[in-house]
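We give this protein:

***
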Amino acid sequence: MEKFISNIKPSPILGFNFDKKNVESQVQNVEQTIFEFEKNLKTGSFDQAYYQNFMEKLDTAGIDELIKEVQSQLDNWDEN
């Protein structure tokens, strides 16, 4: 156990705080979509059509814009 603990390294994004002000509606929409589907996704009680529906709803919710904003903030934060 000591060897394991001695090899632990902090996350390279430790201290990063996402500012959602530019994508508040996308954050809310994505959170709602995940909440709607999470029970079945966590238990594995779904088929391919259900999963595809989930992915389509995430697209509609604005997941791509959200990911781009998070990545942009991470890139800018990493430069500092």
About this structure: DSSP finds four helices and no strands in the chain. Residues 24-43 form the longest helix (20 residues).
